[in-house]
Predict the 3D structure of the following.
Amino acid sequence: MDCEDIVIIEKIEDLTLDLDKIFKPGSRVIVQEFVDGTDISISLISDGEKAIPLSLNEQFVSLKDDKGTYIGGKLPFESKYGDEAFEIATKAVEAIDGLKGFVGVDLIINADEKDIYSVYLLEINSRFTTPYIGLKQVASINIGKSIIGLIDGNMDINELDISLDGEVEFKKSGDNMVIRRI
């Protein structure tokens, strides 16, 4: 998804929008409830069976004029729902047999505290995601080397001792990503 081609339909009249100009004929479209809240992601490493969360990341996303734009993020992010987000992301990754390497899981922390759910799973990205550029600045391990060790069977995921030293913010600036330690 990467925040592309998002259309927010607030009332039934919005369905008369010229959606065929936004979505090409034959496109597959996902319709889901809009949940207002804080955009977050979890970065994990997986050995194909077990997943270890590395960080909780805040995502900077702009939704204007039916266009979603990923602007950047910050890590680590503190939230009273952090443990719940880690648990959801870990279970989601472990539910996919054979998923190995760096994985990013997008979630949203619900702004409505009266809702039954505090954290919603949005998407699993089975690839290096943008927070990696911040993680490599503050992680106590070499993430790439650790992934290769896990995939080659030269390392056990339970041996990984991961800690983060500092905070990092990363934001798009034109075609560049500006990374700074906070």
